Amino acid sequence: MDEQRESLKIEIEALLNRLGGKEVMIDSKMIELFPTETLEGILEGLRKKAEQINEDHLEWLVGLVDGEKRGS
């Protein structure tokens, strides 16, 4: 597997681990089945999902803090 594919594999695994809350390991043979462009698209989709989750979590935390301030 070339360096670019290995890098994409590592990044995809890291995001899946973060999003799923458990350790995910992708078989290198599986990575070889997909064109590089597809792997890049998968990675981009995972990044967007992670950003959305971060934004949603931040909004929830702000709402929680606002609620506590009003209750004080």
Q: Strand-and-helix sequence, N→C? A: HHH
Distance between the termini: 58 Å
Contiguous uncertain segments of 5+ residues: none
Radius of gyration: 17 Å
Instruction: Indicate the percent of residues in helices.
Output: over 70%
Structural class estimated from helices and strands = mainly alpha
Question: What is the strand tally?
Answer: 0
Mean of residue pLDDT values: 88
What portion of residues belong to β-strands? under 5%
- Give the helix tally: 3
As an assembly, this protein is single chain
The dominant shape is elongated
Biggest sheet character: none
Explain how this protein is built:
By secondary structure, this protein is mainly α. It is built from 3 helices and no strands. α1 packs parallel to α3 (36-71). The longest helix is centred in the last third of the chain and has 36 residues, at 36-71. The radius of gyration is 17 Å and the shape is elongated.
SSE blueprint:
Elements: H1 3-20, H2 28-32, H3 36-71
What's a quick, concise take on this entry?
By secondary structure, the protein is mostly helical.
Tags for this model:
0% strand; 72 residues; mainly alpha; single chain; elongated
